[in-house]
Every structure is written in C-alpha cells, then in structure tokens.
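Title: Request for sanity check on Glycoside hydrolase family 9 domain-containing protein prediction

Description:
We are preparing a figure and want to confirm that the structure record we downloaded matches what your pipeline produces today. Could someone re-run it with the sequence below and paste the raw structure tokens into this thread? We only need the token string, no images.
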Amino acid sequence: MRSVFRSAVFLLCLGLALSRLEITNRWNTGYEAILHIHIDEETHGWHLVLEFDRPVETLEVFVAKIESQRNNQEFTLVNESWDPDFPPNTDWPMLFIVRHADGNAATLIRATFNGKPVDVGEGGGPDPTGPVPTTTTTTTTTTTTEKPGPPGEYNYGDVLGKSLLFYEAQRTGKLPAGNRIPWRGDSFMNDGRDNGLDLTGGYFDAGDHVKFGFPMAAMTTIIGWGLVDNREGYAAAGELANGESALRWSLDYFIKAHTSPNELYGQVGDGNVDHAFWGRPEEFPESSARPSWKITASAPGSELAGETSAAFTTGYLVFKDSDAGYAGELLRHARELYDFANNFRGKYTAAIPNAAAFYESWSGFGDELGWAAAWLYRATGEEKYLNDVRAHYSEFGLGGRPQEFGWDDKKAGLQVLLAKITDDPAYKQQAESFCNFIVNDIPRSPKGLAYISQWGSLRHVSNCAFVCLQAADAGINTNAYRNFATQQINYILGDSGRSYVVGYGNNPPTRPHHRGSSCPSRPAVCDWSSGMNNPGPNGQVLTGALVGGPDGQDNYKDDRNDYVQNEVATDYNAGFQ
C-alpha cells in the first residue's frame, strides 16, 4: 500500500469536472491531472494520443500502455488487454502524471481518442505552495472472467490513519497517556518477571495475546522500510508521527528483549494456554502461565536474530536524522544481532519449541542472514556486509524465484532491496522474475484478486504488492507493478464490492476473529459466550484491521469463527500500509 499512500492527494475526485482537463495536483517537478474523455460509441479496443507543447521528462499512466512516443512530446497510449471495452455514452476519467526537471511544466495541447479530438481546455485544481509527494496511483481492478465495475474513490490517507489505529489496538504493556483506543488499557505488566526481567511492551500478534518475536520483527522491518522510503507519504497524510510511534513501540520492546549480545527473548506467552482464554487482555488471569523464552549462543535462532537485526536497522534509518542517540543505539543492536545470527547458527523453533505450532520457519534461516546483512550494508555502506550477502546468496541459494514474500520467506524482499542499493543487474533480474510471476502468473479471482494462498489471502497479496512497488521504485517495470498494486489494494478497499478493512468503506467486516474487540463494553463480562460465540458484531470496532479475506472465487463470510477469513494480525497490515 506504500505507493498508494504516497499520492499527493489521498482522494482522487473522479466525478464531474468543470472542464475536460483537470489539474488535481502540482509540485515543483511535475503535476497530476485527469483528462475527462466522453466516449459516445460502444468501444472495443482504443488508442489515445497525447501531445504536449514541449518534451516531458516522464509520463506516467496507470490504466493504459504507452505504445510509442515521439521526442518525449507526443505519446500514443493503447488499452491494456484486460480492459479494452467501453459502453456507449461513457465519461472516462483518465489520470496521468507529468514530470519535468527544469521547472517548466509541459502543457497538454492536443489529444485524440480513436482519432477523434478531445477537449483539453484546462480546468481548476489545487495549487500547493510547496513540494508534495510525487507518486500517485489511480483506481482500477482487473478480472479474468468479467469486466470490473467502475473504479472506486478511496481516501488513502484515511486508510493509512486507520491502519495505524489497528496497531495501537494491538499494543500491550503500559499504554501512553495519549492512547487513542478507548476500550484498551494497560496489560501484561508482569511480562518477563519469570526471568527477572521487564519484557513489557510490544504487540500482540493477532486475535490472541502472545508476543511472537519472529513475526513481530518481520512486520517491524516492513513498517520501517515503508517509513524509510516513503517518509513524505506519511507526512502528507498527517501520519508521520503516528507511523514513527508504531515503529518505536516495537523497537523499544526489542531493546528490552535483547539482553546481551548473544541473548534475545523471542516469545512471551504460551500459545496453547493463551488460546484457551477468550476475553480482554487486561483481564487475562494472573494465575495462567505467561512464560518468556530466549535464544542464546548454546540454543541459537538465526531467523529470529537476523530478522530482529533487520528491524533495528530500518529503525536506525528512520530515526538517524531526528534522534541520533536513539538511532545509534538501534544500530548497535542491529550489528550485534546480525553477528549473533551468523556466528551461532540454528533454527529458532529448536530453542523456542512453543513457536513451532504457530510460526515455524519453513524457509530456513539463510534468507534472514542475507536480509539482515543487506540492510546493514544499506545503513552503513560497509563492504563487509555486502560480501556477507554474496556469501549467503551462494551458500543458501537465495537467487531463485520465491513464491511469495512474508514473515517467513524474505528472499523476494532481499532481491528487491539489493536491486535498489547495488549496481548488480543480477539482482534486478531476480526482482523482475519474482514480480512478473506475481503480476502475470498468479491465478486471479473472478473480481481480480491475485490469489496466492488461502490463509489470509489479502495479507499475501498486500505483501507482494508492497515489495513489487519497491521494485517499481528501482525502475523495474514501473507502470505495470504500480498498476498491479493499485488494482489489488482497491480490490481490498471496495472494488470487489465490499471493504475488507474494519471500520472503512462499504460493508466492512464487523466480526473479526479478535478477542479484545469482540468484547462488550465494560462492565459487562467478556468470555467465550459474550465474545467469541456472540452472533452479532464485535462489541468494539477494531478500526483499520485487514481481515484474512476471501477465497479464490471471491467468497467471503463475515464470521468470527472462521479465522482463515477473519483473523487479523500485525503482519497482515504491514505490507498493506
């Protein structure tokens, strides 16, 4: 969702325009516009010619292909294969972005649609006084069996803010004075006491109350990556402070959990004991077991240590210019944990067996070793880390095409990251191979969802959309990958016919599989009867949570008992936002 949120305005007004060309945003090096084209006749296949008064640096379009151009001044666009038709008497808002380097904006002077002139008289639009973010996406969906309905209008900034509220609802420990979730309070204030430590803080994993360190670190890295490379998007949405706060909440917990260079606490809470309880986290019985488990040099866990190192490194990159002291501490932890992961190798679930039933490391630890080293190379520029990446590549075969990108398998993210930060074309080829597979070869549902895997189908496609947007930023098939990401995110937000984000849009989920939000308002008792087995909507709105989502035929039931489709989790929202 990162690129979507990087738009200069977060709601594209695609309704009636005062004139045919509407400038919707301007900034120092370009502008965004919508050309409103009235199509009188039924159309099967089309071409659009745009001519500017001077050459442009780049032209970006999202619902067409640029078939040819002349002198960077005249562009011929043709329909995508999946969207060739228009019914008669259609008003089509065609969004495009023009970029220029010299401060002299090129003006659209002529346009033809299937050979017929289009009125390009410029209408009004916002004229910001300062620079604003420069990547915008439009709204469309693809389908393999039917033409999608009209693209929706989505306030992406609002969605970003709501997603961050979901993370605040997942916080545990001593909540800040500015807590924005009224039905949440302090919880699990004795975490770590079984080992004489303060391990309070961090995030609940999903609809339960366990702190699983491996997926928590993975989602922290992804949020950090988004903040590093999309800081201006968060700022434009007014959510930079909340985004940084979400990141700090993880990092502060990991600082507590990294108790010495070769010791890291990777889980708090027994998954089996926890799942036997249904109620508010603030009311979890003190008599129930709440153990904390660690990895050490004698019981190592390279996946966990490597991923936590990567999380610390992204935190360093986010905070190095605003809080140098804190950033330096994060980088120290990142270096130590990478050395720990690399020098004392082992599978983390061997050291923390309780995690195996919930977050087994199926891909092994080689991808996390490469991932951690690559992030340290980006942060420090030290060649030793790049040399380590190359060694890990060779040892673990990290250059092959993965099937997805998520909390377990980091290879796609590693390939894309290296494509962005090195000059080696091999990494770009690997990134392109993965994203082409996701964009072109993954089966689509009737309404256009790229259906990667059953459990949390929207989580899978959101994470892949995120990493392929990073590839697009590296100049790899930019329009195609951005277009794909926009289609998938808009499917989630409503182009499918409903929203899959709690508290947002048309017909959103009301029964997510989530203990705390299922509870009625206090002082009513919350237990299996009043919470889990209540047939009505959740007692509290878990604003911003992305649910698991539909099956491969777009079938979905808003049913709390169906945790495959209605579970929520912190890693679900990470790539999404």
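Thanks, this matches our download. Residues 2-123 form a domain with the Immunoglobulin-like fold (CATH 2.60.40.290).
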